[in-house]
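Can you make up a protein sequence with its backbone structure tokens?

===
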Amino acid sequence: MIKDLTHGPPSKAIVSFAVPMVIGNLFQQLYNVVDSIVVGRFVGTGALAAVGSSFTLMVFITSILLGLCMGASVVFSQFFGAKNYADLKSTVSTSFIFIGVTSLVLSIISIVFVDNIIVFMNIPSELMQDTKDYLLIIFSGIFFTFLYNWAAGLLRALGNSKTPLYFLIIAALTNVVLDLVFVINFKMGIAGAAVATVIAQLLSAVLCVFYCFKKLDFLRFKLKEITFSRRIFRLTASYSLLTSIQQSVMNFGILLIQGLVNSFGATTMAAFAAAVKIDSFAYMPVQDFGNAFSTYIAQNKGAQKQQRIQEGIKVSVLLITVFCLAISAAVWLFADKLMLIFVHASEAEVIAIGGHYLRVVSAFYCLIGYLFMFYGLYRGLGNVTMSIVLSVISLGTRVLLAYTLAPVLKLDGIWWAIPIGWLLADLVGIIYYKKVQIKIPLGGTV
């Protein structure tokens, strides 16, 4: 179902559009979380550490594609808001070719240089082979990650956030079943978890792409209409490349932090792997809310409804504050119990390290909630450069402080660097908004 976000109460429009995205992304996160739970409980903490470290690397590499898809989605939204279906159709064709080729190149490069990547990540020698086995399989499925996120981005740009959710639920449940079968029944170890993930990604991609080309009547293509428009490419690239840089900067910073954490040994790696999964689940809803907010902003920019954009910002601040305060309290109170999802109670040191991380970071979820809102705001308005600036400030501060404080404060230095980075980026986002809020650039579709 296509949904126009330029009409109706802003709070209802944003929330009803965001909720399926939130649920969908939670199911998407199940891919790696289930991998971690299964290998952590049935293979061992070493395998958990390998999967956790691989996840950080996998997120960094696929973030390049996610950024490209998110940028293209902004252009989809703006053309849809302006009812310019001819250029919307051209953007679909051009972006598919552009990002699809990029994904294939990225997959090949990742596979060829996997050994160099593992060395860069400071993976302990005893975990290198497991990590390599897992990554080679995951890298082979990068194209499927592109397919799903491109098709889902198209549907969400048109206001349909429910259909991608349904396909993700099917894929996530498939992943759970296959994880149990491959790892427990077939004794495939960490490789079995990777195979299950790739099959699930393939399933969600096929379902979502098939739906797009069957159900969106005004986007049905004849063979001769599948073209690569240089004009549209330049326009899409101006959004996609910058958004990809933003996503890459964010996740490269996280990758550097993962390398620092790895230097503390396998026990810390396992604790961090589990805690980060809990962390990601906790604030994932506000991250998806920011992405939904970006679509809302982009459609209303295309429709040139400035007042509606201002109303949406006020609603978003309130919703993010209420949600983050509630989730912060829950994670802070139950940190140790949440760690037990991934490891046995006998792993006391792993639980202690992970629980401490969660208590430090969870107290400041409001800060990252506001930051995701700023990302969505500036990306939707077409000011992707500002989103990149905020990412650089947030992650740059985090990395710099972590590497500076770790020799003195050990793990505490790494953990506290995270909310400090969020705070500084939020302050810059607020100051910049105060300066330009009366000058928000609408004046045209793109």
